[in-house]
Design a protein that fits this description.
By secondary structure, this protein is mainly β. The longest helix has 9 residues.
């Protein structure tokens, strides 16, 4: 993943710092402070994993000694989303950032055992445009930018959500996917 992201984004350094395995089987698990958060169900809520404030804060939490130097340059967080087997239900959808003004985002606070995180949620608008890729196979990946420090007009946050596709078979096997969370420094 590190070499893939370096070559596809031009980043000088990439750090893998987290991952989640998502499947409906994990839905019954109650998230508590003791829960292994790498085992989760697909999120059926339109969100972006970071906010303008929580992106830099995460760099400071994970890379204390070098954070200020790293944050003085372009930083982006990318999630690499990969099916474990062909996805037939609870597909991943991403909204087209050009169809959503900044006012459509609002914050959700997530309380963990040793920190508080912030995500953006996206309020509904009939103007939003969406992208998804039906029947994604294990040899395919989606790269989502979940935070970008640049404010020059490029996309900074890509909202995404799992969704129930009405075209999916009622007997479709449950989605199994992995998302790998990374920080890229330019």
């Amino acid at each position: 993943m590190v070499e893939f992201l370096k070559s596809s984004t031009g980043a000088k350094r990439v750090l893998v710092f987290d991952h989640s395995i998502r499947t409906k089987k994990n839905e019954a698990k109650k998230l508590t402070q003791e829960t292994n958060t790498s085992q989760r169900a697909p999120v059926m809520l339109v969100h972006c994993d970071y906010t303008e404030e929580s992106g830099p804060l995460r760099v400071r939490q994970l890379l204390k000694d070098e954070a200020e130097d790293l944050l003085s340059r372009c930083v982006a967080f990318f999630n690499v989303w990969k099916p474990v087997k062909t996805v037939e239900e609870r597909l991943l959808a991403m909204f087209d950032v050009t169809s959503s003004p900044k006012d459509d985002f609002f914050k959700l606070y997530l309380h963990y055992m040793n920190r508080v995180g912030e995500n953006y949620l996206l309020k509904y608008s009939p103007d939003h445009k969406w992208w998804y890729f039906p029947r994604m196979a294990p040899e395919q990946v989606i790269v989502l930018k979940t935070y970008g420090s640049e404010t020059d007009g490029r996309a900074r946050f890509v909202g995404h959500s799992a969704f129930k596709d009405p075209a999916s078979s009622p007997n479709a096997p449950p989605r199994e996917s992995i998302e790998i969370r990374t920080m890229a420094f330019f």
